[in-house]
Design brief:
The protein is mainly α. It is 77% helix and 1% strand. Strand 1 and strand 2 form a beta hairpin. Helix 3 packs antiparallel against helix 4 and helix 15 (342-361) packs antiparallel against helix 18.
């Protein structure tokens, strides 16, 4: 079987074709690793920097906030000024933030570094745009599918690698190692990634960007801190209300703007909003697994469940998931070429749902966790690999950057919401400082419900011919 990254059959005039893809894969893998690599090390970071659990949680929250805000903005800049130049700038800022985080000796500096790193969130939408603009038509679906799957693969690999890195070195090396990868990616992008010939001159709607930032910040802070403040507290409800108001104002501003940051007509296309809904829900399932599975297996067997796994051992329970993503990403690409990307998205939703159902009802043996983890990885690999392809098929080329950027934001939002809901369900079941087995069962069931809803959203995605026609003609008025 040929590797999904093997594009040697491309036309000869496509110079550096394989190298271009390899560079984009390196850039995407680095960002995906940084997204999850610190999660298992948070207790170690808290002890080393002598800080509080609330403060150290911002190491993750700040990264999600920054990436969610900056991704669609930088994606729009890529559409306007060229995706290769913008990719270099995004990677360079990511490298700067990684350097700051690696050198940090206080929680404030570390959080600042993570905020700067959020600019790397634009790597994926920019890379998708480059593939659409530069690659041969018959290789676009496979290239986007494999690259998109790296978002999940890197996330799972980060959970697995964090323990051994911290045990052998220190948490600082969670940033030094990716920093080397970022440096290589910047140089390689300059050398081997051609500038996109498709640009859309215009201006940034800064008021729209500010409103987008505002409602995303309110929503993510409320979700991230809700379990600490209380879901019915004034601060939590106030942030949710403020986020809702700002979101309405953002939609109104973008609908009336001469040059919107995000075209609301585009967002109303059935092939866009259904895929974004699926992205949100699958993202919720994936991030729930990053929280729930390691915590479950880490509980001592004396609790009546769990396996007393260390941080490194807990990561290994997610190894089948990472392998499943790696194997199914290419499969999703081939399915997209033959039957369209809707089919692997539906299959991905079914497999992820089955995984969490298994975890809810069968988790007393190690092999059951491994099987569920493998099913989860296969489902996420299929789903993530198809999401970007469906968005690319649904919109005209000049809107690829901002459209895929918003889809990436939806995954991030779903991940934040899913992870926090899972943590909140567990927190509500704590007895004598330890979550109960029924708490984990409930959390797994909630995640299964989210993935089942993702399957329904996938079924609502228009079939290949309809989506491709709208994308090719740019008929943005064709809303569902």
């Amino acid at each position: 079987m040929s590797s999904s990254a093997d594009f040697t059959e491309a036309p000869e005039h496509r110079q550096h074709y394989n190298l271009t893809f390899a560079v984009l894969a390196l850039a995407g893998s680095t960002f995906a690793l940084l997204q999850s690599l610190v999660a298992p090390a948070l207790p170690e970071i808290q002890r080393d920097l002598n800080t509080t659990p609330t403060a150290v949680a911002w190491v993750l929250t700040a990264y999600l906030l920054s990436a969610s805000v900056l991704t669609p903005i930088i994606g729009r800049l890529g559409d306007m000024f060229g995706k290769e130049h913008t990719l270099v700038a995004s990677l360079s800022i990511l490298g700067l933030g990684t350097l700051v985080a690696a050198l940090a000796n206080s929680i404030e500096v570390l959080i600042a570094g993570r905020v700067i790193q959020g600019a790397g969130g634009a790597v994926f939408p920019l890379a998708f745009g480059i593939i659409r603009d530069e690659f041969p038509r018959d290789r676009v679906a496979r290239g986007i599918a494999f690259l998109s799957a790296l978002l999940g693969i890197g996330g799972g690999a980060g959970i697995i690698l964090a323990g051994p890195i911290v045990d052998a070195l220190s948490y600082h090396w969670l940033f030094w190692i990716p920093l080397v990868m970022v440096g290589i990616a910047v140089v390689a992008t300059l050398l081997f990634v051609p500038e996109s010939p498709i640009k859309t001159p215009g201006r940034i709607n800064w008021l729209g960007a500010a409103l987008l930032s505002g409602w995303l910040v309110c929503l993510l802070i409320a979700v991230s801190e809700g379990s600490n403040w209380g879901w019915t507290s004034g601060r939590t409800l106030g942030l949710f209300a403020a986020g809702a108001v700002l979101c309405v104002l953002w939609v109104r501003n973008e609908s009336r703007a001469r040059e919107p940051l995000v075209d609301m007509r585009m967002m109303r296309i059935r092939g866009v909003w259904t895929v974004n809904a699926a992205a949100f829900l699958v993202g919720a399932g994936m991030y729930s697994s990053f929280v729930l599975i390691p915590e479950f297996v880490s509980e001592p067997s004396s609790s009546g469940y769990g396996f007393g796994a260390s941080v490194s051992q807990a990561g290994l329970f997610l190894a089948p998931s990472t392998l499943g993503m790696l194997l199914m990403g290419p499969v999703s690409g081939r399915l997209s070429e033959r039957v369209g990307s809707r089919v692997p998205l539906i299959l991905g939703g079914i497999l992820t749902t089955a995984s969490f159902v298994l975890l809810a009802f069968a988790h007393s043996e190690r092999w059951e966790i491994y099987v569920a983890s493998a099913l989860l990885g296969a489902g996420i690999g299929l789903a993530f690999a198809s999401l970007a392809n469906l968005i690319v098929e649904a919109v005209p080329p000049q809107q690829t950057g901002v459209a895929t950027g918003m889809n990436t934001v939806m995954r991030t939002l779903g991940g934040s919401v899913g992870g926090q809901i899972g943590a909140s369900v567990l927190a509500g079941s704590v007895v004598a400082g330890v979550p109960t087995e029924s708490g984990f069962t409930s959390a797994f069931a909630v995640a299964a419900g989210a993935c089942a809803l993702a399957t329904l959203a996938a079924l609502a995605v228009p079939r290949r011919r309809a989506a491709a026609t709208r994308g090719a003609t740019g008929e943005l008025q064709a809303a569902a």
